[in-house]
Amino acid sequence: MSTAGTNTARNTAGINAAGTAGEPLYLEPRLERRSAALLESGGPFLHALVDALGSPLNIVLPDQIARNVERFRSVFRHHRLTGRIFFAHKANRSSALVRRLVTTDAALDAASLGELQHALASGWTGDRIMTTGPKDPEFLWLAARTGAVVNADGPDEVEQAAALVRAYDLPRLRAVLRLSEFETSGTTLLSRRSRFGTPARSLKDLLDTVDRHRDAVEPIGVGYHLDTTSLDEKATALEGCLRAMEEMRARGFSPRAVDVGGGFGISYLAHAEQWARYTTELTHAVMGRRPPMTWGGHGYGLRMESGTLKGSLSLYPAHRPLAGADYLDALLSRPAPALGGRPLGTLLLESLHDLYVEPGRALVDQCGLTLGRVLDVRHTDTGPDTGPDTGSGMGTGSGGHLVRLAMNAGDVGLEDHGVLMDPVLLPRDGTPARGDGAAVYLMGNLCLEADLITRRAVHLPRLPRPGDLLAFPNTAGYCMDFGATHAQRQPVARKVAVHREGESWHWCLDEQYWPITRPGGQRT
Ligand SMILES: *Cc1c(COP(=O)(O)O)cnc(C)c1O
User: Fold this and answer.
1) Cis upstream peptide for 423 (omega within 30°)
2) Which of 309, 367, 498, 501 gives 476 a disulfide partner, CB atoms 3.0 to 4.6 angstroms apart?
3) Does residue 325 line the site of ligand 1, with CB under 6 A?
4) Whose CA is nearest to atom 7 of ligand 1?
5) What value does the mean pLDDT take over residues 150-176?
């Protein structure tokens, strides 16, 4: 999709700030219709919101999450599979998103007692909830009490759950058994190690435990969640789950669901070439073949050691040819590595298994953005810093402009998650953001050297001015509120839900949003 018109100035002359030279290294965000429209026509509206509610400010677009669910559902339909789409709530704390979602056919994955309570209070019922992650007894009790599925980490959790069910006379608990460390042939370990789940080779012992607690725990399936973009690893894991389902049936259980977890990802950038060029130039910068592109020569995982390039880029693949629902489609279309090479989706269909997915990030793609007000813009005339790192990950002065924002690195965790993507400049005076281009470092409002919103020089169409806003697009997945703190008693961003009716934008505080129309026709 197109990017916002506010970020389109492409003057390549005169950009030589912050140690960068030549063509500006833009990393333009991929913006779908709703977010693009908001950034194109909503400038005055967004300024008014920040004037009223302060900076930083988070915007969520609840209608987009329903659209994203539909995309996943259409992949299920395409493969003729039944099953459930569990939104991994941990990606965003928003009430509006969770309340809008409850009106769709999605389900919800709660990873803490608080998330479970939030879901229940937002209209979800236990039969549409799965609980994952580390579980304290209160969390397990409420899950069992309300009939939620428990994604069980291993035999200990099964024991613990069974004891609770008996002690408090709870309904029989439905459990998905989380597996990990799948192997294909013999000893080749093909899926990575994880803190979570039971190694697939220990399934027998796990089933022994489940067998002892049949009266209290009903195993409804098996699953995995792998934090990787590798389709090969996921195909191996899915195949391992198909085998585990057979083993369970052979032991007299009646499992019906295979849970492939989350990790479908987002493609953040509009242009593959910009991403390729950026990472190539970054490598050159670390090797000293071009001026630094980062604060203090930060290498994002790359470094030079006695003349050789070491390490690897620890960045999210910001441009992904395959992400979200398309990634699920690719996984299901993939031939099973060892089970005769037929597509994994076909094997699921023929075995009559339900497919469970747990997308977090992918379901909130394009569902929100974060606004920060520009406080001041300073020129530093210190030249590009090619000197040694000071140990804090930063050197001292890199030449160019420093832009200080009324927000800090915890409020917009893009860099923290390794997502490199340009913000969109929304001028205070409403004029289009055009100019000769400027490369700037974005600094936060904490009294802390490390409080950099970007460790890289960011190219903007012109130098920002105090009072302008920078909009960080697509932050709803983990980057909006996951790491926000009250450090230094700085305000934590408020969150508003926004929707468009005709040409006008409407908003309400996130906690005021309900997916209904009030008497008189006013939508919440
Ligand atoms: C975090 C998590 C997810 C969601 O992961 P994404 O990468 O956001 O899709 C799903 N399942 C489990 C068990 C998780 O811990």
Assistant:
1) no
2) 367
3) no
4) 263
5) 97
Q: How far apart are CA 312 and CA 194, in angstroms?
A: 21
Distance, first Cα to last Cα, the chain: 29
Q: Largest alpha-carbon pair distance within the chain?
A: 74
Q: Which two tokens stand for residue 524?
A: 């919440």
- Which segments of 363-457 are extended strands (E)? 368-380, 400-405, 424-426, 438-443
Q: How much distance in Å is there from the Cα of 357 to the middle of ligand 1? A: 9
φ and ψ at residue 182, rounded to 5 degrees: -80, 145
The yes-or-no verdict on residue 21 having pLDDT over 70 is no
The pair of structure tokens assigned to 286 is 């670390």
Tokens of 385: 């810093």
Q: In the CATH scheme, what is the homologous superfamily, with its name and number, of domain 63-265+320-364?
A: Alanine racemase (3.20.20.10)
Percent of the chain with pLDDT over 90: 79
User: Residue 251 class from Cβ within 10 Å (0-12 exposed, 13-18 middle, 19+ buried)?
Assistant: middle
Tell me how far the alpha carbon of residue 360 lies from the centroid of ligand 1, in angstroms. 5
**Range 229-252 average pLDDT:** 96
* Cα of 175 from ligand 1 centre, angstroms: 17
Task: Tell me if 260 CB under 6 Å of ligand 1.
Answer: no
Atom of ligand 1 nearest to the CA of 262: 9
Q: Is 91 in the pocket of ligand 1 (CB under 6 A)?
A: yes
Identity (one letter) of the amino acid at 149?
Answer: V
Residue 381 has pLDDT above 70, yes or no: no
DSSP conformational letter for 517: B
* Residue extents of the structural domains in the chain: 3-61+366-512, 63-265+320-364
Q: Is 360 in the pocket of ligand 1 (CB under 6 A)?
A: yes
Task: Report the pLDDT value the prediction gives residue 395, as an integer from 0 to 100.
Answer: 36
Nearest-atom number in ligand 1 for the CA of 360 is 8
Q: Which CATH architecture has domain 3-61+366-512?
A: Beta Barrel (2.40)
Give the integer Cα–Cα distance in Å for 148 and 140. Answer: 9
